[in-house]
Design a protein that fits this description.
Helices cover 80% and strands 0% of the residues. It is built from 19 helices and no strands. α2 packs antiparallel against α3, α3 runs antiparallel to α4 and α3 (62-90) packs across α18. The chain is globular. It starts with 14 loop residues before the first helix and ends in a 10-residue tail after the last helix. The protein binds beta-D-glucopyranose (BGC).
Length: 467
Amino acid sequence: MEQPSSLGSGIKESSARSSASGRATVVLTAMVAALGGLLFGFDTSVISGAMLFLRTDFHLSDAQLEFAVGIALAGALMGSASAGYCTDRWGRRWMLLVTALGFGLFSVLSGLATGLVSFSIARFFVGACIGVASLAVPLYIAEMAPAKIRGALVSLNQLAITVGIGVAYFVDYAFAASESWRWMFASAVLPAIVLLIGMIFLPESPRWLARKGFRDRALENFRRLGRGEEAEAELAEVEGALQEEVEGFGILLQPGFRVAVLVGIGLAILQQITGINTIIYYVPTILRMSGYPSAKAAILGAAIVGVANVLITVVSMALVDRLGRRFLLLLSTAGMGLALAFMGAAFYQKAASSVVFYVVIAYIISFGIGLGPVMWLLISEIYPTKIRGKAMSLAALSVWGSNWVVAGTFLSLLNHAGPARTFWFYACLCVVAFVFCYVFVPETKGRTLEAIEHHWRHFGEKPGATS
Ligand code: BGC
């Protein structure tokens, strides 16, 4: 039987000390894995500042530029579609290792591109890594986190995404003066290396190990992750749930799990079609449209939006395990709807550009407090262990598919319907999101993943009979 390595002196060690060091290991593990989220955020938004220079250097037409920008999303679609199968088969840790390698390699290759073709190939694979990371990071963190702080730990992923987006704005801003777009892309190699080295040392998800029948290693990893005397009990709970699970997608056809799939896919689509990336990708354009004096001022405005996005995610992390997922989602979708309604009105009445800026900040704050982090959290919590990876793939695919549609239609919508109607349209979709969350989303705060699974298994059997 293998020894619980980080506990070192074994069972005699004071349980207080071991659980403190275990808690530190859990937090550190989540922080390292979240670097995958940082790369997701960085690589999706670094292009916004770089595209102006790409266009000139590679002499791109509008259509070619759109292709160069959109190709990473195509990669993300492919990555998220295949990541579920791969994480279920080869493990969460291995997939994160491979993803870190891919991020490093293809970020450098994007920076070294000599023309549209080599650039697009490199960015496609960066996109594939983004797709894998978008699912593997929350999945890995959720499976190793204790129930009480799972919300905060999984939301570290969203925090890292927002930091990545913020860093990309600053990197773009810093390199804009010298027009060094190559460095904008290549700088992602640094977090990729840290993620790679970190993942070499981090433990595999104990839930995945249990599912694969590696009982001793699962127990060892639960102990490394601070479970102490509760490790056996948690493993027994995981094994109990695994015994009830049907192999394959068949499980998703059970009535309760069908609802879980609907909730996951619905939240994923709603997170995107309520317009977040029209702001994230196009905020300099929106600010310029509202009357900002120069591109530089608009990029600086975007950087401030990025900082607000980071700060509000920290607030959300502090609240999500106390106030619960549902409350934050409802608050969030209501706030986003109101902000977008005001945004439409600001453009309609040709209000001062500062008004538009404040409304953008209000929208970001509303998104960051709930729908941003909580969507990724919920889709890592609501599926049974045996198919968690594959089921998350469906939700992640829905994120990237709808992201593609929104990013690809936003500018045409602006041109045809004008900014006021466009933002009012997204405001209406926030109303749909609010109703959806109110009706369908369950509260998962403080429950183990197995207790949540039990809830779906017995969904609709008898009111109040679920755990
Ligand atoms: C979304 C991304 C978005 C980011 C902004 C994430 O939760 O999935 O599409 O760009 O939040 O913070």
